[in-house]
Amino acid sequence: MSRTNTLPDFKNTPVIDQVGVEERVARFTTRSIKKSSKGQALKMILNMIDLTTLEGKDTEGKVKQMCYKAVHLHDVIPNLPTVAAVCVYPSMVKIAKDALKGSSVKVASVATAFPSGQSTHDVKIADTKFAVDNGADEIDMVISRGEFLSGNYNFVFDEIASIKEACGTARLKVIFETGELSTLDNVRRASEIAMAAGADFIKTSTGKISPAATMPVTLVMLEAIRDYYYKTGRMVGMKPAGGISTSKAAIHYLVMVRETLGGAWLSNEWFRFGASSLANDVLMQIAKEASGVYQSIDYFSKD
Amino acid sequence: MTKKTKQPSLDFKTDWAYAPALEDTKHISLKKQYDLFIDGEFVKPHSKKYFATYNPATEQKLADIAEADQTDVNKAVSAARKAFEKWSKISASERGKYIYRIARLMQERAREFSVIETLDGGKPIRESRDIDIPLAANHFFYYAGWADKLEYAFPNRNPKPLGVAGQIIPWNFPLLMAAWKIAPALATGNTVVLKPAESTSLTALKLAELIRDSGLPNGVVNIVTGAGSTGAAIVNHPDINKIAFTGSTDVGKLIQKSIAGTSKKLTLELGGKAANIIFDDAPIDQAVEGIINGIFFNQGHVCCAGSRLFIQEGVADVVIRKLKDRMETLIVGDPLDKNTDIGAINSKEQLSKINKYITIGKNEGAEMYQSSCALPTKGYFCRPTLFLNASQSHRIVQEEIFGPVLTIQTFRTIEEVIEKANNIPYGLSAGVWTDKGSKIFNLTSKLRAGVVWANTYNKFDPTSPFGGYKESGFGREGGLHGLMPYLTF
């Protein structure tokens, strides 16, 4: 039986004009989101957050407290959504899974020698399987940026494909670490490789490198998702991570998703924010919308 | 044979709608009636006649505007002549200071100017706030800097002012065009009689108030309002040394005829029908954005609008598909809403002209496509419109529509697109989209257009000269070149 090769030529991906991308992004930030549309956006944002702790000093206690916060964001205000997921290292997956039992909050785990990805294939597969076996619903892998920048696109493709296989039913998010990719052309190329290799989500950054998520980078990835959807009909999710800490910035991202991909992507099934401090800023805004005044930051739990 | 499959499509109708975000109008001050600004004060028109100016988004009257006749124009010209004697002789750095002051005052009052520009002309507040008003102030800042450096701009040529400049401006960028005209004239030591377009006089009159407040010597800038006959009185006035006109090619031709045989200097900035050219190696998503900015900026009321789109055949399908998706996200509506992308058509006459061309396009057999957005029930509005499969011989391709209507043609080779792009009586501007630098340089030297934008569109800057070829006019405004039409050597 013959199969048609549907793999794109990764050396020949669409070109990106950075100046044009920045202008388009500037247009999104001039949208004025007020009143009812702001209230709606804030709740949407909460429900799209991957509440994250990825530190060497993470402990069982820290992760448990964060998981409680994930479900009980601010019980003073009724009818708040939960966050989408918590994101932890593989060693903490079991703890998070137990802590979140009975809730709809997912457990995401970084894997594949996060954040550098500098390890062997076998270690990366084992890392992924360990997280999945411990109950991770989602795996956030990193690509091998060194191989990518040397032009070994097939290596990067194969690695993503084999991690996807190791994920089983867990959804795979592929982190590019765009702060190390240097150009938007490279961001576009990495997006095409990851989607063709089976990524369920593409994600900007680990949060360990600056710059992390930016609007231009995210726009290029959203446009890649759109083109892939045009071609294949398969929806791929998007997760900007790191550096988005204010409600205002997050709303700009939602505007960008809405006007690039349309309403179908405006749920946590297809769009996530990787963030640790965003939730409290959003809660502060929601409280302000209700009462008309800003409250002290000490009214919001830091977990 | 092509396989027919149902294509996945994006849906931009979402549960998350943008709530109205109206710009406040309480801070502006508008009088019920505006007189003529002559010799530093507001004076009643000789004829005692006034005409109404309307908000095209609501069809409501905003104010009454004085109609200047021959007597009023005579008064304005003699005030300008008298002022010229002093203005041309004060020190150049002093002149610069006055112009800087106008620029700063304009920045201080930017919010009021933006709102009034939007009320009177129908353009979205986003554009008047972010483009028109800041750019107008920048023109004054830029030319203020030249005032005392003319000797360096034109070394050993002994530049001298001309005298009184008569300036007639259009309704599409009312304050910005006033700035383009007044700033270089003042910097070079000339005095001015300016006539704004009759449907959009308000910001020019607010500018007159600002100029009065700035302490500029009386008579240096005079602003007379009215329609065509007022313009004709300026053009034919024997004591005017220079005419600067921006507007339609038809009127430009009339002006050129009427000043033939006189010693008046002339610059004309007229119509256009620009080619926006997308090559198959272009950054496609950014090119689509450039197409949108090229034709839908200011409701398409832009003389340099990219109104003829040429797409290389290999990427035609994908560009058109993306263009249609992008059009679905354009918000047409209340110009005062900060989220509005496309505001009101400037006047009833202009809307019926656009609609006439849309009918012509349909009759000519081009395939029309419009976005599905809702239009307000009151006011003059037009959906963003494409004409696919247009031909070079279609009238909608050859004639300037001056509205949000884009014709789309495909091409195969670079020679073909150059020939088609130049095959038009106009030559104001063009756009080229390609990733290849050498292709850009090849095209910029072969396109008969005054401005060629590469991988961008509708970019304006006071430092950059602007003007046309062929029936798009002659003379340059902006930059160092913009000083020359106001000088004799």
Report what the structure shows:
The complex is a heterodimer of chains A (303) and B (489). Chain A has 303 residues and is an alpha/beta fold. Chain A has one domain (12-290): Aldolase class I (TIM Barrel). Helices cover 45% and strands 11% of the residues of chain A. Chain A is built from 11 helices and 8 strands. Chain A has helices at 18-29, 35-46, 60-71, 93-99, 121-133, 145-149, 153-167, 184-196, 215-232, 247-260, 278-291; strands spanning 49-52, 85-88, 106-110, 138-142, 171-175, 201-203, 237-239, 273-275. In chain A, strand 1 (49-52), helix 3 (60-71) and strand 2 (85-88) form a beta-alpha-beta unit. Chain B has 2 domains: 33-270 and 472-488, Aldehyde Dehydrogenase, Chain A, domain 1 (3-Layer(aba) Sandwich); 275-454, Aldehyde Dehydrogenase, Chain A, domain 2, CATH 3.40.309.10. Chain B is α/β, with parallel strands linked by helices and 489 residues long. In chain B, strands 14-15-16-13-12-18-19 form a 7-stranded mixed sheet, with helices on both faces. A 6-stranded mixed sheet of chain B has the order 9-8-7-10-11-21, with helices on both faces. In chain B, strands 1-5-4 form a 3-stranded mixed sheet, covered by helices on one side. Chain B has helices at 70-87, 92-108, 110-121, 125-146, 150-153, 174-187, 202-214, 228-235, 249-259, 284-296, 313-328, 348-364, 395-398, 414-422, 437-446; strands at residues 33-34, 36-38, 41-43, 50-55, 60-66, 160-161, 164-168, 191-195, 221-223, 242-246, 265-269, 275-278, 308-312, 367-370, 385-388, 405-411, 426-427, 429-433, 451-454, 469-470, 473-474, 487-488. Classes of the chains: A alpha/beta (303), B alpha/beta (489). At the A-B interface, helix 1, helix 2, helix 9 and helix 10 of A face helix 10 of B.
